[in-house]
Amino acid sequence: MKDKITAVVFMLLALFFLIGAFFMPFTTEYGKYGAPGIVPIVFSTIVILLNLVMFLRKREKKVPSQTDQDRQRISAENKRLLISVIICLGYVFLLGHLNFIILTSIFVATLSLIFYRKKPVLIIVVSVLVTYGIYYIFEKLFLLPLP
Q1: Which one of 9, 31, 79, 83 is separated from 23 by 20 to 30 angstroms, measured CA to CA?
Q2: What is the pLDDT of residues 55-83, one digit of tens each?
Q3: How far is CA 93 from its chain centroid?
Q4: Lowest mean pLDDT among 13-27, 49-63, 118-132
Q5: Of 37, 60, 40, which Cα lies nearest the Cα of 48?
Q6: Pairwise CA distance, residues 125 & 5, whole Å
């Protein structure tokens, strides 16, 4: 039942963005493929289709009763999801106030440690390298300043 509700909510949200994207201009100086509404239209359509599939699959499937082990696993997953949401909100709040490379490295490493839980040294090294790579690409190649 929760999956059906989630599918409907995301379909409505994607429909909202799809309608908003149709109000954006379709012709620009860069041609029809440079129009700002193209990407939201594509992504909204994909979200609607995927959630429609999820809604239809859950309609046919009967859910077996959950055991205590299943409930504990779901509870642990919900806790990790809640922690992830809190970390994401903290990242968004601190972005622009702290150095991008340090904050993003900590953010990526923390989320990776929460979900992967193996090889912490490797996770930290990869997080720093990926963050520096993102910083280099945006700052030096695209000439887009990061916060």
Answers
A1: 9
A2: 998 776 666 677 888 888 888 888 888 99
A3: 17
A4: 49-63
A5: 40
A6: 40
**Amino acid, single-letter form, for residue 138:** F
Residues belonging to the chain: 147
What is the Cα–Cα distance from 109 to 120, expressed in whole angstroms? 8
Tell me which residue has tokens 């601190």: 94
Q: Per-residue pLDDT tens for 122-141?
A: 999 999 999 999 999 988 88
How far apart CA 133 and CA 72 sit, in angstroms, is 38
Copy the structure tokens of residue 11: 């379909």
Residue 41's Cβ-count burial label (10 Å; 0-12, 13-18, 19+) is: middle
Q: How many CB atoms lie within 10 A of CB 131?
A: 20
- The alpha carbon of residue 46 and the mean position of all alpha carbons in its chain are separated, in whole angstroms, by 14
Residue type, 112: S
Tokens linked to 13:
């949200």
* Amino acid of residue 111: L
Report d(CA 123, CA 112) in Å as an integer.
7
- Interatomic CA distance for residues 127 and 66, integer angstroms: 37
pTM: 0.57
